[in-house]
Specification:
Bound molecules: inosinic acid
Number of domains: 1
Radius of gyration: 16 Å
CATH architecture: 3-Layer(aba) Sandwich
Largest sheet: 6 strands, parallel
Structural class: alpha/beta
Number of strands: 10
């Protein structure tokens, strides 16, 4: 199996690019169906979701808007739980159907804070699309609406996800060999 070194740590290929793309098309189709006749506002969370958002949105055929935002960054291989204010929002959320686009939900702390911040701005509805979901790591009652892959609580990198800032460019998703 394909291996790679990211920031001095060994990772092995876990979810191939073609498998990711196939699944992302399925998620986009589900969104197209559910939001038919509506105009959702996609809010992808940078930096991690840039590849997922790009592939997802290429397959979204309904009318929509997109506003990338930035929130926390991840500290090493453990979730810090510390989140910052959401920045970069350039569309009004009030009365809109919001779809938050995330790379991964781990403890759920980030998503909980994000949902709180978004809900304060009075959207008509809020749904969450996440490429990866580590259900076994969840510490908050978060139930994402669109999930690419449920994965065990292993550290992963690639397809937008980083390890201390490295590895976001990798087209496949890799998992840590040793932790
Ligand atoms: P949470 O708040 O614990 O759910 O973590 C959310 C954020 O932590 C994600 O948006 C990622 O940036 C980061 N994260 C969590 N797990 C991983 C991982 O396995 N690899 C890379 N980043 C991760």
């Amino acid at each position: 199996m394909k291996k790679t070194i990211v920031n001095g740590q060994e990772f092995k290929c876990y979810i191939t690019h073609s498998k990711i793309k196939k699944r992302v098309v399925e998620l986009a189709k589900a969104i197209n169906k559910e939001y038919e006749g509506r105009t959702p506002l996609f809010i992808p969370v940078l930096n991690g979701s840039f590849m997922f958002a790009s592939d997802l949105l290429k397959n979204v055929s309904i009318q929509s808007n997109v506003s990338f935002i930035k929130i926390q960054s991840y500290d090493g291989m453990k979730s810090s739980g510390k989140t910052k204010e959401l920045i970069g929002l350039d569309h009004s959320i009030e009365g809109r159907d919001i779809i938050i686009v995330e790379d991964i939900i781990d403890t759920g702390l980030t998503m909980e804070q994000l949902l709180k911040a978004v809900n304060k701005l009075k959207p008509a509805s809020v749904k969450v699309a996440t490429l990866l979901f580590k259900r076994e790591c969840l510490q908050k009652p978060i139930e994402p609406d669109y999930v690419g892959f449920e994965i065990p609580g292993r550290f992963v990198v690639g397809y937008g996800l980083d390890f201390d800032g490295y590895g976001r460019n990798l087209k496949h998703i890799y998992k840590a060999v040793l932790e």
